[in-house]
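#onboarding

Welcome to the new folks! Below is a worked example of what a typical request in this channel looks like: someone posts a single protein sequence, and someone else replies with the predicted structure as tokens. Don't worry about understanding the tokens yet, we'll cover that in week two.

Example request:
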Amino acid sequence: QLQPVESGGGLVQSGGSLRLSCAASGFTLDYYAIGWFRQAPGKEREAVSCISSSTGSTKYADSVKGRFTISRDNAKNTVYLQMNNLKAEDTGIYYCAARHGMFRQCVPEYDHWGQGTQVTVSS
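Example response:
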């Protein structure tokens, strides 16, 4: 079954860093736009960052600009989300999502979702 697989979550102190990975299971990431989303307890899911498939164009939520960096390594079939200077409000379950196609820009909707990885930032 085509599904992204997230890893790299954990417990970190405020100001610390984590790198999340989104690996492809059953497909090649080269032809997929990828998005990272998160959901905090009691809140709706929100978009964090995304990267297009053809140009590598990226976008970030205002709340993470300057702290998070999304990148893709097609040779490793993996997309990364480097998270620096983490804050308590970054706590949540982080999901990776994929959409097939060659897109020059990020896309608003995704077809395939991972199970998520928990990120907890202690203040």
